[in-house]
Amino acid sequence: MTAKTLVGKKIAITGSTGGLGKELCAYLAELGAALILVDRNAERSEAHKNDLEARFGVDIECITLDLEDIESANRAVDRLIAREIDIFIHNAGAYSIPRRKCSSGYDNVFQINFVTPYYMIRKMMPMLRERGGKAVAVGSIAHNYSKIDICDVDFSTRRAASKVYGNAKRYLMFSLFSLFRGERDARLAIVHPGITLTNITSHYPKAIFAIIKYPMKLIFMSPRKAACSILKGIFEDTGYCEWIGPRIFDVWGKPKKKTLRTCKSDEITKIARIADEVYNKCLKIGDIDVQRAHEKK
Questions:
Q1: Diameter of the chain measured on Cα atoms
Q2: For residue 288, which of 130, 195, 202, 260 sits 20 to 30 Å off, Cα-Cα?
Q3: Is there a contact between 118 and 279 (Cβ–Cβ < 8 Å)?
Q4: pTM of the predicted protein model
Q5: Which has more pLDDT, 65 or 216?
Q6: Which domain holds residue 121?
């Protein structure tokens, strides 16, 4: 892949302190981008900021974001709009974590991997259009593991982590395909890094993870190589139901654009409708939060 300059570009990235995020930030900083690290852990984010500034000498700032909380998402979006970012990369994710209901009423895995990133991208659309900007969202082959269930939208009754996570990624990917379909000013790239050893793959019990960790390093791509799919998505757009990912079985090799045939049109229509309902519900939650803040004053 031929690297282009990113000098003069402001790029925000969620999950910047994880394995993929760290490697991607290094690529972006090396290409001259000004970065905004959007993370839950402010201390780790600040340490990462200091390291990147020392290594690359680019402008970097941090924004705290809790993906389980719509109020936190609204604060982050307001700051990102004020910064007039050029590219928003949603890289953060959660796989096998303790399950709970968020204040939105949705399961937290669904909230983290779909509800909040979709809500944020949609709220930023006017700014992205004005700037000719772009959203880059990290998908997953796990979206193949299940089809949506309109009677259990967030899979809160399911227990298999692969299906719960896959359902959320399915919603994220195909709701964004629908949102950007026919869009002329803002651009989209859905990317898939393949399977690599990151925080999201360290959910196994410690004893099991200790056994599989080193074989995984030998079998699958390193986070640095896996991050190349996301990097390619910064420079190349994906069309409707296209994504960029490893060319060999979606697991290994250099990134390549391909057409997805994993979700039929009627299901995509349902996903788009539910995504619209989710967005409007989150808007109402945001309005309630603002009213409460004014009342406290």
A1: 57
A2: 130
A3: yes
A4: 0.91
A5: 65
A6: 10-291
